[in-house]
User: Which sequence fits this backbone?
């Protein structure tokens, strides 16, 4: 197996902590094993998308799915997590790789769909990282992840985030580049304007100390629900989210503001 070999000067820990992410250049695109793997992933995606059951999954209306990499994920792991990359990951996170459990996941955005609301992955204090590998060029046209630069540095409620000054960045990537992102960086999926489903493969790093149940690697590549349950209640929630997203945000903001006012009033009465 060929080594990845980073091409540009690596970002130091201070910059990573401040911005909440880093995108690494690699030579993976020149690695035949990597390209064969990506072709296998694309074949698996196309096979799954042909199934009528895909329309019943939570996330279909929004057009944004999770995935289980299946056996292909183990091969991808062996390509990515070689010594040079592991040393860099441990340096910028100040954590040992063996202190994490891995979820072999990713994100699939359907053509002409995929718009999300800004959110974080889990609570602020959970120390999780996402290592994502671009299987193709991710451009402004095929659903790049949009982040709010440095929003990982302060815990914010929804209303605080809503009214905060933001520096938004859409993370375009070249095929073979690797994104390392902190879970508490506010982000969202954007619309895929292309005619092709966009796949992003990710390893979700969860501290073993959290004792979270990790999804096992499936026997084959699978497309999974994302955000919403695959039932009638989940479908209704998803329709509201997609068609009336502004209403959800408005109601959450009103609820949060009223809750804060109620809490302040109770403190005065004590």
Assistant:
């Amino acid at each position: 197996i060929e080594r990845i070999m980073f091409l540009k000067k690596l970002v130091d820990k201070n910059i990573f902590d401040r911005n909440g992410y880093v995108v690494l250049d690699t030579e993976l695109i020149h690695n035949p094993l990597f390209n064969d793997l990506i072709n296998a992933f694309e074949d698996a995606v196309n096979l799954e998308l042909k199934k009528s059951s895909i329309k019943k999954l939570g996330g279909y209306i929004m057009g944004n799915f999770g995935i289980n990499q299946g056996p292909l994920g183990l091969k991808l792991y062996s390509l990515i997590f070689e010594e040079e990359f592991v040393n860099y990951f441990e340096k910028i996170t100040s954590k040992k790789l063996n202190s994490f459990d891995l979820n072999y996941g990713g994100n699939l955005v359907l053509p002409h769909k995929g718009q999300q609301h800004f959110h974080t992955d889990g609570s602020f204090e959970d120390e999780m990282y996402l290592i994502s590998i671009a299987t193709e060029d991710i451009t402004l046209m095929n659903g790049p992840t949009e982040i709010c630069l440095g929003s990982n540095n302060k815990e914010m409620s929804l209303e605080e985030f809503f009214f905060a000054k933001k520096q938004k960045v859409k993370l375009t990537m070249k095929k073979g580049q690797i994104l390392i992102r902190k879970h508490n960086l506010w982000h969202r999926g954007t619309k895929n304007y292309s005619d092709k489903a966009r796949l992003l493969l990710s390893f979700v790093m969860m501290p073993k100390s959290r004792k979270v149940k990790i999804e096992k690697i499936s026997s084959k590549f699978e497309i999974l629900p994302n955000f919403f349950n695959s039932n009638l209640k989940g479908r209704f929630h998803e329709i509201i989210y997609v068609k009336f997203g502004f209403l959800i945000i408005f109601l959450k903001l009103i609820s949060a503001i009223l809750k804060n006012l109620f809490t302040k009033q109770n403190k005065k009465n004590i």
The radius of gyration is 19 Å.
